[in-house]
């Protein structure tokens, strides 16, 4: 059956691959975005997840078009890399407010409807950096590690209502963000990955779609690495 799916930050990169995977499966897919265009076949909703009023308005728009959100993929996030001693409080807070607090806002709003329906799927997009660490990314790593504690705690809260909450932790992924790196930087990153290459966004999307399927109905509170082995042991 076609479900109402919402992917935050879904107009490019991993989010777009996730949105397209659900749409290809026949689901009704909406994506939030702050700028840019949305590909045909997806419902685009302008929303800055750091603004609670915009989050509420976005959900109302999705609900009017597709019905209550049954699958939420919390993907929207930013980076603002800097060594700690050069990082301002604003640099730190801005990343936390988007990646962690913004996810809190969207998940809280989605779960409200899922509790009434007594079913739902929530997938949080974290990062290998959450557990592995990365110099110059204390703010980003803290925000992505926070998603793991947040997701596992929520999984315990809502499991009795047939709602699963899982975390996907991608590694080095071939997106516009990583394509901005020099060829030497990209090769250096790839050498750290046991599989020796970056992931395609579609490989992350396949895991997200599985966790949202009936086949994964007994998986909740899990952290699934899709990182080519980069973070193994962490």
UniProtKB/TrEMBL annotation:
Biochemical pathway: Lipid metabolism; fatty acid biosynthesis
Catalysed reaction equations from the record: a (3R)-hydroxyacyl-[ACP] + NADP(+) = a 3-oxoacyl-[ACP] + NADPH + H(+)
Domain named Ketoreductase: residues: 3-176
Matching SUPFAM superfamilies: NAD(P)-binding Rossmann-fold domains
CDD domains to which the protein is assigned, alphabetical: BKR_SDR_c
Active site: 140 (proton acceptor)
GO biological process, one term: fatty acid elongation
Oligomeric form and interacting partners: Homotetramer.
Protein name: 3-oxoacyl-[acyl-carrier-protein] reductase
Organism of this sequence: Mangrovactinospora gilvigrisea
Lineage of the species this protein comes from: Bacteria, Bacillati, Actinomycetota, Actinomycetes, Kitasatosporales
């Amino acid at each position: 059956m076609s479900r109402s799916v919402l992917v935050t930050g879904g107009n490019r990169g991993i989010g777009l691959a996730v949105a397209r995977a659900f749409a290809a499966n026949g689901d009704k897919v909406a994506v939030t975005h702050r700028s840019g265009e949305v590909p045909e076949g997806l419902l685009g909703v302008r929303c800055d997840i750091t603004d609670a009023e915009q989050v509420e308005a976005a959900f109302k728009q999705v609900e009017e078009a597709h019905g209550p959100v049954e699958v939420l993929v919390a993907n929207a996030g930013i980076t603002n890399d800097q060594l700690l001693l050069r990082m301002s409080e604003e640099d730190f807070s801005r990343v936390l407010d988007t990646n962690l607090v913004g996810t809190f806002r969207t998940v809280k709003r989605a779960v409200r409807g899922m509790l009434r329906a007594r079913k739902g799927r929530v997938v949080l997009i974290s990062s290998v950096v959450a557990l592995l660490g990365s110099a110059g990314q204390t703010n980003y790593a803290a925000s992505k590690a926070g998603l793991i504690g947040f997701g596992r705690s929520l999984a315990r809260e809502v499991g009795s209502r047939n709602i699963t909450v899982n975390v996907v932790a991608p590694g080095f992924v071939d997106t516009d963000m990583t394509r901005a790196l020099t060829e030497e930087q990209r090769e250096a990153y790839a050498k750290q990955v046991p599989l020796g290459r970056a992931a395609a966004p579609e490989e992350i999307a396949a895991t997200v779609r599985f966790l949202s399927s009936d086949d994964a109905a007994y998986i909740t509170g899990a952290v699934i690495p899709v990182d080519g082995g980069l973070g193994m042991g962490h």
